[in-house]
Specification:
By secondary structure, the protein is an alpha/beta fold. Helix content is 33%, strand content 25%. It has one domain: Ribokinase (UDP-N-acetylmuramoyl-L-alanine:D-glutamate ligase), CATH 3.40.1190.20.
C-alpha cells in the first residue's frame, strides 16, 4: 500500500521572536533558520516516518535540489517532483516565546505543477492505495477526479481553507482533517455542522486540547500529550501524516489517534518542522514511557 501526495514543497524562513510585532512595530529576531517546509512535504515526511511508502508529486525551482535530497533522506519517493521556472514556494514563519506561530505563505512553484505529467503518476497505483492533497498546490479537482477514476481513496487537508475548493472536493473525500478554525469555516460554507456531512472519516484537531474523530468507526476523543512546546509549526501536518498511515494500514482508530497525537507531541517539543518529525520507533517508545508512568 502507498500514498500519492500532491503536495507543496516550501523553503521555510523561520524567525524566533520574543513576541509578535504589533502593527507598525519593528523588532529584531532572536534567531533565524532556513529549512524544508510546506504542508505537503511535512505530511509526506510524517507518512514515511510512520512507515508508509510515499510518492510525492510537486514542483520546485531547479536551483533548490537540496530539498529533494532532504526528503529522500527521510525515505520519501521524489521521482515525480517537477522542476519549475517559478521560484520554489516559501513561507515566512514567526515563532514567539510560547511556541505559537504566524505564517505568510508564497505558493510560487507549488501552483505551477504540470498536471498532465502529475496525473500519470497515478497509473502505477492500485485500489489499495490512497491519494493525499492540501490547498497549497494547483490541480486539486483534476487530481481527485483522476484518483476516483482509479478507485483510490482520498485524504484531504483543507488548509489553507478555501471554501470553493473544499465544497467541490467533499463529496469524493474519504478522510478529512481540519483544525477548529477550518471546521468553523467549513460549517459556515455548508450551513451544516461538520459532523453532519456524513464523511467516512473526519478528524478535528484542537491544538493543545487534543483531537476528535467522527466517522464509520464511531466517535473518539484523544487528549494531547503534555509536553513543553518549543515550536508548534507543522504539528497538524505531523498528526495528519501519522493518522493517515494508521487508517491506510487499518489500525484501530483509537490506536491511530494515540500514535498521531504522540508524534505531534514529540514534534512540537523540538525546534524546526520537517526535521522534528519523529520516527515511529520514537513514537512507540514515547507512548510506552507514558503508559509506564501510570
Amino acid at each position: 500500500m502507498a500514498v500519492f501526495n500532491l503536495g507543496s514543497i516550501n523553503i521555510d524562513l523561520v524567525y524566533k521572536l520574543s513576541h509578535f510585532p504589533a502593527p507598525g512595530e519593528t523588532i529584531a529576531s532572536l534567531s533565524f533558520m532556513r529549512a524544508l517546509g510546506g504542508k505537503g512535504a511535512n505530511q509526506s515526511i510524517a507518512l514515511a516516518a510512520a512507515g508508509m511508502q510515499v510518492f510525492h508529486i510537486g514542483a520546485i525551482h531547479s536551483g533548490d535540489s537540496w530539498l529533494i535530497a532532504h526528503m529522500q533522506k527521510r525515505k520519501v519517493n521524489m521521482t515525480h517532483v517537477q522542476t519549475s521556472s517559478e521560484p520554489t514556494g516559501h513561507a515566512i514563519v514567526m515563532v514567539n516565546d510560547e511556541g505559537e506561530n504566524q505564517i505568510v505563505l508564497c505558493p510560487s512553484a507549488n501552483r505551477s505543477i504540470n498536471l498532465a505529467t502529475a496525473l500519470t503518476t497515478l497509473d502505477s497505483a492500485t485500489p489499495e492505495d490512497w491519494v493525499l492533497l492540501q490547498n497549497e498546490t494547483n490541480g486539486a479537482h483534476e487530481f481527485v477526479s483522476a484518483a476516483k477514476a482509479r478507485k483510490l481513496k482520498i485524504a484531504y487537508s483543507a488548509a489553507p481553507f478555501e471554501a470553493e475548493i473544499a465544497l467541490a472536493l467533499l463529496p469524493d473525500c474519504d478522510l478529512l482533517v481540519v483544525n477548529e478554525g477550518e471546521a468553523a469555516a467549513l460549517m459556515a460554507a455548508t450551513g451544516q455542522e461538520v459532523e453532519a456531512l456524513g464523511l467516512e472519516h473526519l478528524v478535528i484537531t484542537h491544538g493543545g486540547k487534543g483531537a476528535e474523530y467522527i466517522g464509520k468507526a464511531g466517535r473518539f476523543y484523544q487528549a494531547a500529550f503534555d509536553v513543553s512546546a518549543v515550536d508548534t509549526t507543522g504539528a497538524g501536518d505531523c498528526f495528519f501524516g501519522y493518522f493517515l498511515a494508521g487508517v491506510v494500514n487499518e489500525t484501530p482508530i483509537e490506536k491511530a489517534l494515540i500514535e498521531a497525537s504522540a508524534a505531534a507531541a514529540l514534534q512540537v517539543s523540538k525546534p524546526g518542522v520537517a526535521d522534528a518529525i519523529p520516527l515511529r520507533q520514537e513514537v512507540l517508545a514515547f507512548i510506552k514511557n507514558k503508559n509506564d508512568c501510570f
